[in-house]
Amino acid sequence: MKAAWVAFGGILSSTAALAANGIAVTRGNDSNVYGNCVPSLVVENRSAETIDYLQVDIVLALRDGRQRTIELKSAYRGGVPAPIAPGTQATLRQQLDTSRALGVPCGEVSERRVSRTICETEHGTMCASSVVVQP
């Protein structure tokens, strides 16, 4: 029994270390642009790898029961790169010139959840580090 607790403790400590050295994404400042809510997320790259592209898709539940999915990106896909180096922060934004506006002000958003995360390194591979998102 004691061996099981030691193994369990090892698993917990390795999970905590992975989260501490991963990629943390938290809610940024929301802004209203022409009456439309434009959310943002703040990325803190605690990993040892450079992030070339990061996208987090968020499903926003509106007060009237509708849902909208917004793509928040670190840069334009296939456009000018904006790498996120280890130990730095960046902001993920909705590209309003390539995506549909939310259609409501920020006060109409009642809930947020993550539906998809895309993380690629400067070598074009998936990020090895964990990405933890708190929208």
Describe this structure in words.
The radius of gyration is 17 Å and the shape is globular. Residues 1-19 have low confidence and may be disordered. Strand 5 (51-62) and strand 6 (67-73) form a beta hairpin. The protein has one helix at 2-20, and strands spanning 23-27, 31-33, 36-38, 40-45, 51-62, 67-73, 89-93, 109-121, 131-134. With 135 residues, it is mainly β. It has a 4-stranded mixed beta sheet with strand order 7-4-1-9, with no helix packed on it.
Features:
single chain; 135 residues; mainly beta; 4-stranded mixed β-sheet; 3-stranded antiparallel β-sheet; disordered N terminus
Helix share bin: 10-25%
Estimate what percentage of residues fall within beta strands. 35-45%
What is the distance, rounded to the nearest whole angstrom, between the alpha carbons of the first and last residues?
39 Å
Uncertain runs are: 1-19
How do the helices and strands line up, and which of them pair or pack?
Blueprint lengths: L1 H19 L2 E5 L3 E3 L2 E3 L1 E6 L5 E12 L4 E7 L15 E5 L15 E13 L9 E4 L1
Parallel strand pairs: 1-9
Antiparallel strand pairs: 1-4, 2-3, 4-7, 5-6, 5-8
Summarize the structure.
This protein has 135 residues and is mainly beta.
